[in-house]
Amino acid sequence: MGRVAQWCRVARVHPTALDALLAGVLFLVSLLRKALGQLRSAVRAVRDELTTRHGVRRRDEEPTAPSEPAPSLNRLDALVECFAAGQPVRWKLGGQPRPLPSVVDVAAYRIIEESLTNARRHAPGAAVAVRLRYDPDGLTIEVRDEGPPTGTAGAGAGLLGMRKRAESVGGTFSAGPRPEGGFLVRAVLPAPEEEAG
User: What is the predicted pLDDT for the residue at 6?
Assistant: First the structure.
């Protein structure tokens, strides 16, 4: 006797068992629908967060006007001022500033922003120095804090993100504790003068 025939026989002999089985199946289906609805909501929330943080959007979505100016070294004064409210931050510029390719400009700004965030988190109140040096081949960024010796190089998500940003534009990145105390972040981003703009 095949399985279908067995189920038909069980259904004739025990109609309440079949009712219970169907109720169980319907209950499971309703749970799955609810879980799928929650999953869709979570995916929408993640997509919205990515759109907000990184400007990522689906192809079928219309571009919207940005709610704030794009990250750029032209806004470095405002960035430093924002962080200087909680701890002393000074910055120094070397070389002749010039327009950079937009991907390099954004990467440089974000590396400085994350470095300042890390300094605030791991060395609150310690002095921080930001140094930018333009040369014919690109830009060198150094962010140094005067916090206590840490003894570890650190491998947090912020450092990994800065490394990825630097490498995504063909640059190099290093970060670690300084022998005399504090922490140093250094990125070298290529931006030859002829590619500026």
Answer: 73
Pairing assessment for the beta strands 138-145 and 172-177 based on DSSP bridges = unpaired
**Tokens read off for 138:** 């690109």
- Write down the residue that tokens 């960035």 correspond to: 79
Cα distances from 61 to residues 49, 64, 66, 80, 176, in angstroms, run 15, 9, 14, 34, 41
Point out which residues pair with 189 in neighbouring strands: 139
Mean pLDDT, the chain, as a whole number? 79
144 - beta bridge partners?
129, 184
Q: Whole-angstrom Cα distance, residue 156 to residue 190? A: 25
What is the Cα–Cα distance from 170 to 164, expressed in whole angstroms?
A: 10
Which pair of tokens denotes residue 126? 């310690």
Q: Considering only CA atoms, which of 191, 194, 193, 156 is closest in space to residue 175?
A: 156
Place of tokens 């991907």: 103
Domain locations in the chain as residue ranges: 3-54, 73-195
Name the β-bridge partners of 188.
Answer: 140, 172
pLDDT recorded at residue 59: 45
| Class (C level, CATH) for 73-195 | alpha beta
Q: Provide the whole-model pTM.
A: 0.63
* β-pair partners for 176: 184
Block residue for tokens 């000074």: 90
**Cβ-contact 169, 189 below 8 angstroms:** yes
Q: Is a pLDDT exceeding 70 seen at residue 195?
A: no
